[in-house]
């Protein structure tokens, strides 16, 4: 602004020159008046005169008139207020830049108090968000733990619209950023994952970071909702966007002019929404026939309002994070980016152990038991299951002198039995709870708690049959529960209160616990027909596809087969799973103490008969087709639930029958959402198979734990496809031991995992020692030139290998030279991909020279490397040699017109090459047209 003297003149002059801009853009007048009054520039009479003006613009004119009358210092202070409270006066920020405003030294010491409604509301939101998210209320409601003391990251994978991996989330800031965004027109950041994998706690962490201003975002408002709230409204209820934000989230105080809502409408990009549990919406979203909501003032049913928000019809540009269980697909046209949660990695699990067990003794006890059981580790990769196991271990260990986790294979049913035992143990008298018992007897605890357990089970089943998550006080009393039962831990109050100030409704601690208790209701029921235990099985048909919950307001009306909000059937599937577990042989003793042994035996027989029949029908109906690997079967998603039920039930007879019924020699389980714990169920069946088998489990989440659990079945596997499964070198060590021992493997797929040079050396061992191995896919890992030398030396010695995929590693020129040595005179290698490996012309020269001494290779990919014209002369020599190569791909390299011309001149001397793909090199369209007569040069 120049010298001080000029500044004294300029501020008053500026208000005069820019009077029109100030009158039209200045908002939040009360904040201006408050600060002018507090600073002494205005008196009470001045404020009253301004407030008596008829319109906002007249009030601004009067403020400017008074300020200019009070001198240069008052004028500067007015501008300083606008400068200091940016969010309140965002429309005037460009004007401040235009006049190049810099506060003078004497005004910066003056105090500016932000009483702007927008800023106040932002601070109120942050305060309430911090209060709500600073602590994790444990599932047993007995204690609160600071979020930062227990929160542990999980594996978060970024996906494209086809659910293909785009990498992994390194920090939560990436969730809201543009990383891995595949649809700039989409409104939703879609976070999906299995039950208990940590979706809700992830949102809590995100909210907490924002409340502490530690989240990298420009958003000043953050509204959090649970989707089940929208299903709790009556059909006749209607609300507006304003109602949703301010009546059902947080109300802006001292905002008579609706400045907060106006700001949200003008700047929706500064708003974040989180909607947790989209799969739990009670209404059938495909049946919403009401017209779309496009006006923020228009009232509609809350569900319709939600859909319009998610589609961008309302508050377009705001950031919306939506969570749902895996299997609930949302139309890609409204999704901005996708994130899949995969639970704890081994490192995450160890961090969680260290945080959960402060006592070194407990930490070591749990670590020993986990290390001894890959299946238990697999279960504990799901955060909910992990918490139950750890909490039960700690609680029951304090009550009993020698409590240990079950030595036999712990099932999901066993985990929830532990949780229930922990809850029911609170029924013990204070004297009993203070005295450590010398022995641990689960049946005593369950028998003592049979009355409330039966009542909770009845309530869970009734709610599930009605498709409800919430239950009223009246429903609770009707089921026979009393006030004291509510403190056991099975239920928790929701935030709404009734007229007396108590909780108006309750919900089960987790929907999976509700499924478990519903299954218990079937087991404990001694009055209904025995066949009622199969009630939910009939609703989970094999042919049902994953639900696609469409947005009516975006893509038109569509119908779903099931009007229940349990649209994916997963809650019912879990109930069936738990029923199989509770009626299993290992739990017969416990169940026999809780219900009639005669009825129990009849239910077990009926369930076993049903499972046997269902397995036969399912296997007969699976689609079979033949390929080079043999007769294949691509199983449907329900087959995985069937395997889980068989394992949970523990029936070896059904497992043997299932293994025998798989007549195909190749099973495809790709994209079936198989996680590590499922591998135990799969192995439980496959261990009974006599014949050799190919197994394709690409694009799942089996991790190292899953590979350990499949170890007994590798002896019969001819095809092992574990691409995109979060595998590390430890998995490759197991594979090397087993595959080299049995020597039957023919195809090994390990694309896109976390394999380093250590794992590459083990894969090389497999190549060398397995005489039937024909195909190895190990691209997109972390292999350098060191690992490439191991692999190339093994390939050189192998006479069976004919297809090798190395796309997307970092082998460079040294690795290329090693592969060049392997290529020379190789008798069988037909397909080779060294794409995206950082190979320059130096590495290309070695490869081209080696190819002149190879007559077996037919397909060679060098896509996306650093090849320049320097290599063209060597490639041209190889082309003239006419060795038999039919497809050469050089897409996305750095060849220019001169390099391509050399290749074109060599082509007439070659009769075998069908194509050289050179798309994406450094030629203009006009230069490409110059080669139009050479049809084997492909630029498209």
Description:
With 940 residues, the chain is of the alpha/beta class. 46% of the residues lie in helices and 11% in strands. The protein contains 42 helices and 25 strands. The strands form four sheets. A 13-stranded mixed beta sheet has the order 13-14-15-16-17-18-19-20-21-22-23-24-25, with no helix packed on it. Strands 4-3-9-5-8-7-6 form a seven-stranded mixed beta sheet. Strand 24 (915-917), helix 42 (925-929) and strand 25 form a beta-alpha-beta unit. It is flat. It starts with a helix and ends with a strand.
Counting DSSP H or I runs of 4 or more residues, the number of helices is 42
Intertermini distance: 59 Å
> What would the principal axes of the Cα set say about the shape?
flat
Average pLDDT, all residues: 89
Percentage of β-strand residues: 5-15%
Spatial order of strands in the largest sheet: 13-14-15-16-17-18-19-20-21-22-23-24-25
Low-confidence stretches: 1-9, 431-435, 542-567
Helix share of residues? 40-55%
Task: Please tally the β strands and state the result.
Answer: 25
Biggest beta-sheet profile: 13 strands, mixed
Query: Over the alpha carbons, how many angstroms does the gyration radius reach?
Result: 34 Å
Structural class: alpha/beta
């Amino acid at each position: 602004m120049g010298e001080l003297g000029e500044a004294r003149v300029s501020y008053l002059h500026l208000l005069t020159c820019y009077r029109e801009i100030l009158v039209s853009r200045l908002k939040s007048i009360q904040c201006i008046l408050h600060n002018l009054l507090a600073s002494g520039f205005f008196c009470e009479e001045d404020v009253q005169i301004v407030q008596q003006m008829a319109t906002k613009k007249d009030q601004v004119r009067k403020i400017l008139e008074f300020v200019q009358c009070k001198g240069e210092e008052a004028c500067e202070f007015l501008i300083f207020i606008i400068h200091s409270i940016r969010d309140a006066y965002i429309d005037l920020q460009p004007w401040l830049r235009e006049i190049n405003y810099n506060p003078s030294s004497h005004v910066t010491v003056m105090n500016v108090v932000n009483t702007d409604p927008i800023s106040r509301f932002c601070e109120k939101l942050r305060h309430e968000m911090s209060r709500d998210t600073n602590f994790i209320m444990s599932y047993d409601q007995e204690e609160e733990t600071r979020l930062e003391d227990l929160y542990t990251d999980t594996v978060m994978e970024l996906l494209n619209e086809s659910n293909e991996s785009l990498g992994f989330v390194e920090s939560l800031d990436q969730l809201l950023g543009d990383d891995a965004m595949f649809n700039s027109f989409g409104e939703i950041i879609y976070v999906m994952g299995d039950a208990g994998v940590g979706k809700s706690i992830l949102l809590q962490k995100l909210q907490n970071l924002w409340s502490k201003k530690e989240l990298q975002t420009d958003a000043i408002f953050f509204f959090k909702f649970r989707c089940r709230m929208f299903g709790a409204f009556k059909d006749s209820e209607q609300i507006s966007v304003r109602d949703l934000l301010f009546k059902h989230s947080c109300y802006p105080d001292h905002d008579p002019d609706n400045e907060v809502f106006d700001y949200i409408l003008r700047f929706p990009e500064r708003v974040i929404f989180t909607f947790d549990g989209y799969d739990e919406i009670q209404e059938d979203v495909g049946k919403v026939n009401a017209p779309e909501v496009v006006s923020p003032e228009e009232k509609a049913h809350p569900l319709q309002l939600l859909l319009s928000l998610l589609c961008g019809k309302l508050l377009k540009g705001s950031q919306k994070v939506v969570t749902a269980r895996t299997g609930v697909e949302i139309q890609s046209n409204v999704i901005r980016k996708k994130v899949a949660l995969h639970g704890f990695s081994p490192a995450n699990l160890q961090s969680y152990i260290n945080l959960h067990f402060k006592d070194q003794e407990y930490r070591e006890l749990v670590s020993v038991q986990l290390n001894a059981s890959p299946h238990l580790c697999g279960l504990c990769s799901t955060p909910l299951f992990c918490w139950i196991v750890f909490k039960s271990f700690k609680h029951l260990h304090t009550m009993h002198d020698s409590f240990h986790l079950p030595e036999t294979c712990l099932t999901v049913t066993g985990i929830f039995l532990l949780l229930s035992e922990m809850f029911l143990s609170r029924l013990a008298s204070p004297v009993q709870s203070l005295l450590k018992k010398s022995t641990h007897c689960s049946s005593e605890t369950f028998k003592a708690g049979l009355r409330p357990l039966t009542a909770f089970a009845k309530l869970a089943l009734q709610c599930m049959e009605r498709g409800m998550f919430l239950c009223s006080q009246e429903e609770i009393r009707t089921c026979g529960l009393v006030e004291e039962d509510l403190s056991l831990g099975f239920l928790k109050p929701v935030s709404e209160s009734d007229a007396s100030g108590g909780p108006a409704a309750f919900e089960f601690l987790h929907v999976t616990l509700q499924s478990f208790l519903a299954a218990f209701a079937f087991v404990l029921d001694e009055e209904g027909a025995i066949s009622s235990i199969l009630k939910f099985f009939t609703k989970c048909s094999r042919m049902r596809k994953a639900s696609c919950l469409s947005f009516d307001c975006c893509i038109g009306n569509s119908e779903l087969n099931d009007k229940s909000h349990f649209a994916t059937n997963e809650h019912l599937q879990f109930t069936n799973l738990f029923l199989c577990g509770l009626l299993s042989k290992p739990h017969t003793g416990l169940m026999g103490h809780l219900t009639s042994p005669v009825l129990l035996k009849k239910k077990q027989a009926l369930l076993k008969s049903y499972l046997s029949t269902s397995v036969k029908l399912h296997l007969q109906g699976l689609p079979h087709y033949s390929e080079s690997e043999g007769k294949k079967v691509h199983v449907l998603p329900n087959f995985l639930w069937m395997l889980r039920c068989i394992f949970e039930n523990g029936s070896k007879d059904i497992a043997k029958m299932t293994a025998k019924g798989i007549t195909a020699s190749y099973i495809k389980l790709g994209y079936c959402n198989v996680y590590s714990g499922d591998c135990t169920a799969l192995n439980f069946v496959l261990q009974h198979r006599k014949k050799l088998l190919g197994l394709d489990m690409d694009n799942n989440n089996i991790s190292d734990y899953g590979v350990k659990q499949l170890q007994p079945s590798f002896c019969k596997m001819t095809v092992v496809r574990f691409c995109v499964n979060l595998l590390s070198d430890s998995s490759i060590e197991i594979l090397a031991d087993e595959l080299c021992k049995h020597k039957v493997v023919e195809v090994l797929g390990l694309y896109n995992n976390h394999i380093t040079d250590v794992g590459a050396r083990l894969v090389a061992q497999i190549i060398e020692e397995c005489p039937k191995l024909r195909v190895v896919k190990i691209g997109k890992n972390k292999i350098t030139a060191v690992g490439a030398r191991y692999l190339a030396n093994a390939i050189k010695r192998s006479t069976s290998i004919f297809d090798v995929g190395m796309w997307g590693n970092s082998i460079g020129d040294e690795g290329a030279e090693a592969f060049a040595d392997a290529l020379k005179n190789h008798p069988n290698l037909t397909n080779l991909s060294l794409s995206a490996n950082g190979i320059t012309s130096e590495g290309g020269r070695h490869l081209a020279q080696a190819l002149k001494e190879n007559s077996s290779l037919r397909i060679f990919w060098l896509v996306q490397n650093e090849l320049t014209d320097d290599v063209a002369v060597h490639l041209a020599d190889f082309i003239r040699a006419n060795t038999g190569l039919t497809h050469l791909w050089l897409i996305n390299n750095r060849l220019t017109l001169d390099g391509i011309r050399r290749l074109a001149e060599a082509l007439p001397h070659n009769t075998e090459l069908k194509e050289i793909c050179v798309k994406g090199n450094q030629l203009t369209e006009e230069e490409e047209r110059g080669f139009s007569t050479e049809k084997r040069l492909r630029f498209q």
